[in-house]
Design a protein that fits this description.
It is a single chain. This protein is 14% helix and 31% strand. Strands 4, 6, 7 and 8 form a 4-stranded antiparallel sheet that branches. A 3-stranded mixed sheet has the order 2-1-5, with no helix packed on it. β9 and β10 form a beta hairpin. The longest helix has 15 residues.
Length: 146
C-alpha cells in the first residue's frame, strides 16, 4: 500500500513538473503529439519535444506499468482528446482510463510513456529492458523503433 501511494505521489510530481502535464487544456483538447527528428530518425514526441516510448509488456492497449515502473516511466496523461501535430495520424490517437482514474494517451494502440530522466530533445533509454519488458521509441507509423 505504501508503494502505491509513493508511486501516485511521484506521478503527480512528474505531471506538475511537465513530464506528463497536458500542454493544451480544455474540455475538448488535450495534449499534443508530434513527430520530430532525433538520433533514431523521426520519432513520436510530446508538444514540448520529449520522446515518447511504448512498453512491450503492455497488452491490448492497457498499461502494465504502475508503482515503481510508473515512477521511472511516467505515463503520458491527458484530460481531453489528444491533438495530432506534425507527422501524427489523428486516427492512431486514443486514450484509456488507468487504474487510478487518469487518462493515458495511446498511439496505434500502444500506451505511451516518458522516461523520467529524458529532457526535451534527449533520448537516454531507447531499447532498454526494465520492469519485465522492453522500452522502445515510436515512429509516426505507430511501429516501434528497433
Amino acid at each position: 500500500m505504501g508503494r502505491t501511494l509513493f508511486a501516485t505521489a511521484l506521478i503527480a510530481i512528474f505531471t506538475m513538473a511537465g513530464f506528463g502535464a497536458p500542454e493544451a487544456m480544455s474540455k475538448k483538447r488535450g495534449v499534443k503529439l508530434q513527430v520530430k527528428g532525433s538520433e533514431y530518425g523521426k520519432v513520436l514526441m510530446n508538444g514540448g519535444g520529449k520522446a515518447l516510448y511504448l512498453f512491450t509488456k503492455d497488452k491490448k492497449g492497457r498499461s502494465d506499468c504502475y508503482g515503481e515502473c510508473a515512477g521511472a516511466w511516467p505515463p503520458f496523461l491527458t484530460r481531453g482528446r489528444p491533438v495530432a501535430g506534425r507527422g501524427v495520424k489523428a486516427g492512431r490517437l486514443g486514450t484509456f482510463e488507468r487504474d487510478d482514474g487518469t487518462r493515458q494517451v495511446t498511439y496505434a494502440g500502444h500506451p505511451v510513456y516518458f522516461y523520467a530522466h529524458d529532457s526535451p530533445g534527449e533520448i537516454l533509454c531507447q531499447d532498454v529492458f526494465e520492469f519485465g519488458g522492453r522500452w522502445l521509441l515510436l515512429r509516426g507509423s505507430g511501429k516501434a523503433v528497433r
